[in-house]
Structures are given as structure tokens and as C-alpha cells.
Design brief:
This protein is mainly α. The chain has eleven helices and no strands. Helix 6 (about 100-110) packs parallel to helix 8 (about 130-140), helix 8 packs parallel to helix 10 and helix 9 (about 145-160) runs parallel beside helix 11.
Length: about 210
């Protein structure tokens, strides 16, 4: 599980409490040895210099400590996360929130191409992308091709879908896949259901008929 998969695994109410939870996790675990502390501090200094959220890096290090990973693996994981955070921040410019940067890094982790984050920002420039990116991450993690999942999420965003509707879509697809549906068939079906609740679009919907496995 990636650092921020809570977007789809906890309630929407918990989403608002996330910054406080991260603040509590901003200190490196006391069990870390001196070598690991110095290595993590180097990564934090680099992140601080370019304005990345340091608390996420500390949380990643603490995750590795809790799993009893080696210091090298922990340091490598923190460094890799730092790179994803930087790419996500740049693609979600001009002023992404910490939640958006974190969600973008998770999307990159599961294989979403960086340019897709920029396209999603263009589709929804004035609202938070944290939850939509979390939805995209979960869909790709469930086996959907990144381009298809991004197309559906972006189309729904442009049509005016709310965060609640996007969250419900992801939960429904997750349940359908667990019940044996093919991921793309489940996504098509659930996306059409959400579309039916939204204002009519000027052009015909691009969704194909849902396919059962």
C-alpha cells in the first residue's frame, strides 16, 4: 500500500483530518540509528530546498522502520518518494496543495504517466485534485489502463461530478472487481451510472456499452 492510498480506504471525513495526522508523523521514529537519521536528514534538506512536503518523507521513513526494512532500503524509498513528489508538484503547478502533491506521487507510483497529472490539472484548475487523483490511483491499482482510467475520471470532472460521486465510483468498481467483473467492464458500467446523474453534455458520451467478464 502506498503512502496515501487512504484517499479511497477511509471516509471522506478523514480526508480533511489528514494534514493533522501528517503533522503528528513528522518526527523520525526514535528507534532509527544515527546513520539512518543522517541519511534521512540529507533527503529532508534536499526536499526543503525545493519546497517539498518534508512530513511525507519522514512518514515514509517511519513506515520502513516499522516494517524493519534495512537502512539502505529506507533511504532509497525516501529518495524515490522525493523524486515523485517533485514531479507531481511540477505537473500540478502552479500552486498544488500538499494533499494534491502526495496524491500525484501515489499516481506516479502505480504507473500513471506524469503528463496525465498536468492534463487533469487543466481539466479542473480551480478545485482540489487530491481525491480525483486518489480515485485514478485506485482504478489503476485495480487493473485499469492508466489512459482509460484518466479519461473517465477527467470526463466526469469536466461534466461536474462531485468528490462524493467520484469516491462512490471507485468504491463500486472495487466491489465489482472483487465480485469477478473485468475492471474495464466495471468502470464503464459505473461511469455511465454517474454520467446519468450529471447535466447533459453537448456531445455524445464516449463510453462504450459495459462489458461483463
Amino acid at each position: 500500500m502506498t503512502l496515501r492510498r487512504w484517499h479511497l480506504l477511509i471516509s471522506l471525513a478523514s480526508l480533511a483530518a489528514a494534514p493533522a495526522a501528517r503533522a503528528q508523523a513528522a518526527r523520525l521514529d526514535a528507534s532509527a540509528d544515527l546513520g539512518l537519521r543522517r541519511a534521512v536528514e540529507r533527503e529532508l534538506v534536499a526536499a526543503r530546498a525545493i519546497g517539498l512536503p518534508e512530513g511525507l518523507l519522514v512518514a515514509k521513513a517511519n513506515e520502513g522502520i516499522a516494517k524493519r526494512a534495512t537502512p539502505k532500503r529506507i533511504t532509497d524509498a525516501v529518495a524515490a518518494l522525493g523524486k515523485r513528489l517533485q514531479v507531481a508538484r511540477d505537473q500540478l503547478a502552479p500552486n498544488p496543495s500538499e494533499d494534491e502533491i502526495a496524491a500525484g506521487a501515489d499516481a506516479l507510483y502505480v504507473g500513471v504517466p506524469a503528463p496525465m497529472l498536468k492534463k487533469m490539472r487543466a481539466a479542473w484548475p480551480s478545485r482540489s485534485l487530491a481525491l480525483p487523483l486518489g480515485v485514478l490511483t485506485e482504478l489503476v491499482a485495480k487493473g485499469l489502463p492508466a489512459d482509460r482510467a484518466a479519461q473517465v475520471v477527467t470526463d466526469l470532472m469536466r461534466r461536474g461530478a462531485t468528490n462524493v460521486q467520484l469516491y462512490a465510483l471507485a468504491q463500486s468498481v472495487q466491489g465489482d472487481v472483487a465480485a469477478g467483473w473485468a475492471p474495464e467492464a466495471a468502470l464503464d458500467l459505473r461511469a455511465r451510472g454517474v454520467m446519468s446523474l450529471l447535466p447533459p453534455a453537448p456531445a455524445a458520451s464516449a463510453f462504450a456499452n459495459p462489458r461483463r467478464p
